[in-house]
Write a structure and sequence with these properties.
Growth Hormone, Chain: A, mainly alpha, 2 strands, single chain, globular
Length: 484
Amino acid sequence: MSENTAKESYIAKVSGLKGKDYVAYALGDTGCCLAFGLVTTLLQRYYTDVLLLNPIYIMVMFVAARLWDAVNDPIMGRICDSIKPSKWGRYRPWLLYGALPLALSAVLMFIKWGGFGTQSASIGVSVYVAITYVLFGMSYTVIQIPYGSLASVVTLDDKERSKLSIWRSVGAALGSIPVIALSTIAFTTSGVKYNALLIGVIVISVCSFAMLIASFIGNKERVRSLPQKPQKGATIKAFKILFKSKSMVSVSIASTLLFAGQLFIQSFYSYLINYYFGKGGIWTAVPTVLTYLPMAFLMFFTPNLVRKHGKKEISALGMVVAAAANLAMVFLLFMGRGDATLYLFMFFCLISGVGMNFFVLQVWAMVTDAIDEIEVTTGGRDDGTAYAFFMFFRKFGQVISAIAVNATLLGMGYFSTVSSGTFSFSQSQLKIMFILATLIPAALFGGMAIVLYLFYPLSKTRVADLQEEKERHLKNIAVEENRE
């Protein structure tokens, strides 16, 4: 059998995606990010300014929820890998199963019952907040881990997977837009408009449900996926393999740092724009918009850049640019708090977004490359477990962000000021806010550049070799199956 015939039989046969396939796949992350954006953009400030929760409690709750994910995520991954596929496939049905729980739990997090929001929040309020937050996290896991694994059974072609990653990132960005718009309405310099916030949350949650159902309908699993035979110690063995994979560990760490930086910016810049620059309304959303705006044109150029230079190469360079832009923001402190400073701050947000979005657009394809490498080197493939591993690392980014945001608020005395009924801060408080708002993302993005340059091994050349190795591996599997 010739190489071209083999390619037709094993890779090209289950590839050939069309525009509607990319759109359907992207809608999955649109739905997820509509709901998840409520957490990353609105929840932190809702907890501090509406429920008057102490930042220490918020930080502890976020960390505890991530510790639960250390148990919850692997369980979901093994379920995906071991259960018998339904008539709809192995991973696709979870979009249907998780859509309603995700939407309902999102709304429950923002419902303020009678007695909520007093200066000394009761134990009942704290328990309610913790329960609804954990329920949301579990609902999100039920969708996100199978959804991440879905790309591996939609196509086997490396170039199509790269495009899927781009479309997924675009879908995620589109899902964030309504939440950003809601933040401009609900967040003001004098506090939070709760009724507007709640109505917006309900509308966005309904849209999230609709997008996930649309993604379920539009996707198709083209690659046959057999359930893993139950074996004693299979989960431990799978995780040992993942921890030994330099590719998977390094891309997971890089994604963790990226996620921490993204969440920090989305959560903390609302405080910064309101109180340091004294702007409300649409201004609170501008930094986030400028951070993701470059995706609108980079998505058209990135495929060619990847073919010419490689995913690792453009992503690492992009993170150097992002780190440098955030570091440059620090020096704006010496310009005062006028409009000129604000405009320069926004300019550096845009430059940071240009650099950051190269990795954002390619990260999911890089994860799939790492899984492919594990398969051709070990013979095993546990996509659900691999994505559980990766997603747990990303969720650890939430821990880093939660600690950074709430530690900064504590350090500047935010809670005591807000609890007193005033939103006026001293110059020293605002100085601390600005310095940490710029240095923390710079450190996170700089760390990413180091990880990608020095530790992530899948360069352009290595990925090309990996595609050929995968072709041979699939051919050998087919030969063995025919013998049986």
